[in-house]
C-alpha cells in the first residue's frame, strides 16, 4: 500500500448512515505531524467539529475521537476507525466505522472523499 500523509488534505461527505450528523456540505481539513492527526470540520448542520487521533503510518488507517456542536447547540462526541482507498484518479476515499460515546447513541458507517 502507498504511504499517505494527510497533512493539508480536505475531504467532503460522500455517504453516511442514519443516526449520524455528517451531511453534504461538511468540509474536513486534516493536519498530520508524524503519527498525530488533527482535523477541523464545519458546514451544513455542524457549527464546529474537531478530530484528534493517530495515523497508522504503514497502512494509512486512522483511529480517532471527535467532538462537535451542531446547529441545535448540542455537544456530542464519538470514536472512529477509518480505512483509506486509493481511487484511480489519485484521490483518497475514507471508509469510516464510527460510534457515539456521549450526547447521542448508536453507531454507523460513512465515506468521505478527497476534494
Describe this structure in words.
The chain is mainly beta. It has one domain (about 10-115): Beta Barrel (Lipocalin), CATH 2.40.128. The chain contains no helices and eight strands. The chain has strands at about 10-15, 25-35, 35-45, 45-55, 60-70, 75-85, 90-100, 105-115. An eight-stranded antiparallel β-barrel has the order 1-2-3-4-5-6-7-8. Strand 7 and strand 8 form a beta hairpin.
CATH superfamily: Avidin-like
Q: Decide which structural class fits the backbone.
A: mainly beta
CATH topology: Lipocalin
User: What fraction, in percent, of the residue positions are helical?
Assistant: under 10%
SSE succession? EEEEEEEE
Largest sheet: 8 strands, antiparallel, barrel
Distance between the termini: 21 Å
Low-confidence sequence ranges: none
- How many β-strand runs? 8
Radius of gyration: 13 Å
Provide the CATH top-level class. Answer: Mainly Beta
Count of helical regions:
0
The total tally of domains equals 1
> What is the CATH architecture assignment?
Beta Barrel
Strand content: over 45%
Q: How would you describe the shape?
A: globular
Give the strand order, joined by hyphens, for the main sheet: 1-2-3-4-5-6-7-8
Summarize model confidence as the mean pLDDT. Answer: 94
Short account of what is shown:
The chain is 0% helix and 63% strand.
Q: What keyword list fits this structure?
A:
115 residues, mainly beta, Lipocalin, 8-stranded antiparallel barrel, globular
Topology:
Blueprint: E1 10-16, E2 27-33, E3 36-43, E4 46-55, E5 62-70, E6 75-86, E7 92-102, E8 107-114
Antiparallel strand pairs: 1-2, 1-8, 2-3, 3-4, 4-5, 5-6, 6-7, 7-8
